[in-house]
Description:
The chain contains 9 helices and no strands. It has about 375 residues and is an all-alpha fold. It is elongated and about 170 Å long.
Amino acid sequence: MSCLVLRLHSLDLRRSVLPLCYSLTLRSFSSGALSRSLRESYRLLQLPDDGASDPVEVKEAYLRMAKLYHPDSGAPTADATLFSQIEEAYRAVLAHLARQKSASQYTQSMEEEEDEKVKGNAPQHRHYLNFEGVGSGTPSQRERQYRQFRVDRATDQVLEYRRKEMEKAAAEEGAMVARDARLRSKQIKITQAVERLVEDLIQESMARGDFQNLSGTGKPLNKFDYNPYMDPMTHNLNRILIDNGYQPEWIVAQKEIRESICKMRKRLQEVRARLGEPMRHSESLQWKEHCAVFAEELGKLNKKVDNFNLIVPLMSRQMVHYSLKRELEKILKTDLLLRQEKERESERNEKEQMETTRTSQHTRQGLIAWMQNLLK
């Protein structure tokens, strides 16, 4: 027993002495053993020379000094010699901090190794002195009971974790259901509000007599049964609105675009028809001016096409930009065909005129011959 007590006392003494030695070693690497050159390095970086600065502070100080003294910084305090000294000081300080870090890690590892040795040299019966107060009987019986207790506790923790996850999932699902219900109720409220607004506008229009001059007043509505996938009431209402000039915005925009391009083509076609074939120099300049005006109008029309594509409800109804090159080629081709048609028509007229003249000459000659025969 006395030998065991002496051994424990020696282990406790080593555990108390070793941290003191390690702390003295670490202190020798930190502030107490800073050399004159290292203090000078800290002074150049404008840092406290107690060695308590961390690498981040050292880097910030180096960047700050580099902005002031780097030869390429453009600052009035730029100095290449001083900056080289600052760079050497920065490297020396970083090396010192690295040595401090390695010394602290070495001290920590030595302490852990010593603790492991102390635990390994401790008497075996000490492992059975504490089982979190679980069990009774001999140490082996208490150990078995403690193992079973740990298994039961781990099982309870797993079940508790699963229960919390299920509750969390249920709460998230309930939140999603509640959010969907709020969105649906909001949409229903908006739809009902729009329907009430439309109904109020219809009633006001009826009170003002806006619907009294509609065509077919007092007559039954025609049945449109060729579209079985649409509500007959909706179809009839749409047909009534279309018949009386009420059209969607995208239909009006599409109609306006098509009418505009037709007018532009017709106007440029008339200009080309007034010019000769081939064109003289003055006519060529005039044609270029009209083409420039046509190009400007076409750019504005393409902007209307972009606006139309934003409001059209179907992708298949979208329009593409009108190309200036294709339009000019189409106009020139049409003008060429018209000129050829005019030439053929003029040739036919000349032939008809020649035939008419020939016929009239034959008729006159026959009449003269008849009169001569009559006089004879």
